[in-house]
Amino acid sequence: MSLAPEASRPWFKWLIVIIVISLISAFAAIKWYQKQQPDIQVMTSDGVLQHIQHLNNLETVAFHIDTVVTSTREGSWNRLWQDQQKGLFLASGRVVAGLNLSKLTPENVTVSKDGKAIHIKLPPVEILSSSLDKTEVYDIRTGLFGLMDIDPQLLSLAQTAARNKIIQTACQSGILEIANGNAQKQIESLFTLTQAQITVESAPVPKCA
Q1: Bridge partners of 100?
Q2: FRET partner for 161 with CA separation of 20 to 30 A, picked from 67, 100, 171, 193?
Q3: How many Cβ atoms from other residues are within 10 Å of residue 158's Cβ?
Q4: What UniProt keywords are attached to this protein's entry (predicted)?
Q5: Distances in Å between the alpha carbon of 152 and those of 70, 87, 131, 155, 207?
Q6: Which of 125, 116, 151 is nearest to 206 (CA)?
Q7: Distance from C-alpha of 205 to C-alpha of 175, rounded to nearest angstrom
Q8: How confident is the model at residue 195 (pLDDT cuts 50, 70, 90)?
Q9: Residue 150 reports pLDDT greater than 70
Q10: Nearest 5°: phi and psi at 151?
Q11: What is the mean pLDDT of residues 114-134?
Q12: How confident is the model at residue 203 (pLDDT cuts 50, 70, 90)?
């Protein structure tokens, strides 16, 4: 009679193992099921606005431009204009256009009551920045026989003229039109994972300065 409890112990241990395995399997199945459920996202106008405005400036296109400019400092009459200086400069610059998203207001964003449709009216695109990467002297003349010291203002005037010229060239090449089309596509792509229907309305392209 004393052997009966000893004989029943292996069966009891296996029962415990089966119960533990069953609990672990059930827990794993619940976790797997929860992962399969789609996240519920409720879109609001303020949420959409914050999602966009964190980008600050949205640079949608950049033009790299090379140009040639001249800079002249007129001579003085008391020196019979022999102190006139003239320089020819090669300049390389960059013009960036896009959206200033700080101009986006709650009035620009409309979200349907069920959060499934979003309408965004964009502000006009603009030139965000322009810069000169380098300015090289191609030729310079400093008065009669080239004996005059180079006036530092000559380079400063050339850089100002070069910056204005690269902006003008970018405008003539349609930088704002390209920026406008790219801006609409990039804003739409921000909400591709929301499963909401996105409508982005671009503002008319302004005059390029």
Answers
A1: 57
A2: 100
A3: 23
A4: Membrane, Transmembrane, Transmembrane helix
A5: 14, 11, 20, 6, 34
A6: 125
A7: 10
A8: confident
A9: no
A10: -75, 120
A11: 88
A12: very high
Output the six-digit token pair for 209: 């300065």
Q: What are phi and psi of 128, to 5 degrees?
A: -85, -35
DSSP one-letter code for 189: H
Select the more confidently predicted residue: 2 or 99: 99
Q: Give Cα separations from 52 to 90, 108, 123 (angstroms).
A: 39, 11, 12
On whether the CB atoms of residues 132 and 163 are closer than 8 A, the answer is yes
Angle between helices 175-189 and 152-172 (to 10 degrees): 70
* Side-by-side strand order, sheet with 197-201: 109-111, 117-121, 197-201
Give the span between the Cα atoms of 142 and 140, in whole angstroms.
7
For residue 190, give Cα distances in angstroms to 16, 36, 100, 180: 52, 23, 16, 16
Task: Calculate the average pLDDT of the chain.
Answer: 73
Tens digits of residue pLDDT in 17-32: 455 455 545 555 555 5
Q: Partners of 130 in the beta sheet?
A: 95
For the stretch 169-192, pLDDT in tens is 999 999 999 999 998 888 888 777
Q: Answer whether residue 12 shows pLDDT above 50.
A: no
Whole-Å CA distances, 197 to 42, 55, 118, 126, 191: 13, 21, 6, 27, 9
DSSP H or E segment with residue 177: helix 175-189
Could you tell me the CA-to-CA distances from 179 to 55, 71, 169 in Å, in that order?
16, 32, 15
pTM: 0.65
